[in-house]
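User: Please run a holo structure prediction.
Assistant: Happy to. Please share the sequence and the ligand.
User: Here you go; the ligand is PBG.
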Amino acid sequence: MAFPTNRMRRLRRNQRLRNMVRETRLSPECMIYPIFVCPGDNVKKEVSSMPGQFNLSIDNAVKVAREAEQAGIAGILLFGIPEEKDELGSDAFNEDGIIQKALRAIRENVRELLLITDICLCEYTSHGHCGVIRHGDVDNDPTLKLLADSAVSHVRAGADIVAPSDMMDGRVAAIRRGLDDEGLTGTPIMSYAAKYASGFYGPFREAAGSTPKFGDRRTYQMDPPNAREALREIALDIEEGADIVMVKPALAYLDIISQARERFDVPIAAYQVSGEYSMIEAAARAGWIERERVILETTTAIKRAGADILITYYALELAKTL
Ligand code: PBG
């Protein structure tokens, strides 16, 4: 039945009505807040391309973790900035590496907050690539062992979930096997399954000091024009044992989130990455957009597309204002 019997505006007449019929709701319970942990004491160094986000020494990371727990968000995603980098990225799987130390300190101070760690080597390697280099490119298979070792050491130090972001083939299976061999069968893997070689990671690489010294990540991260390939990546990761799969970046890949939601029954996470954050902050500073509205609109869009879990630098702020 059409107009005048049907009038779509009837349910938009006031805020109560609009709230009642709202289809997508944001809740802190589905949000994850990424943080960058660095060496030192009482360090809180703002990332210049990400105003409002910081490199935090462990003492300050503990404070943020407490805040996050109180705000009711699901978890924090930890990235480590090591004291020293080397060819293999050894700090990633060193028992006394930056992440391992941070995990032990944070675990002592928060009980329920989920501690999720990014499993990758790029923050730890001198060349800035996500794995072992051979003949000028990342060598897939030797990298797998290092990733599995990193995962095991993170979980031993207190991680609740591990999140491989390296995009090596077979890494979910290698990590699952590594964890299971150590009896860590109950730890979920949230894989960055469809991770694109994106221009949106620029500010993160400043924050983590992980810009590749040569070349780029196109031989391992996905080519942005491809959608079917993303579904294959996701299917393979699920087959290898991923408990949660992620699409990243989020806003430019809503179609992938939506297709993944239709096709797969595992929980889907989406990562609103650094460049998405920085664009909003920059435009808001210039007075060109209404900051709070755009934050809500973009994060809601990611959920509306089908993401169950939202990884965003706005998690803490949203949790306090929602
Ligand atoms: C590590 C990693 C990156 C991000 C998450 N994990 C950087 C990259 O792949 O270059 C990006 C997150 C962001 O931009 O916020 N491989």
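Residues 25-321 form a domain with the TIM Barrel fold (CATH 3.20.20.70).
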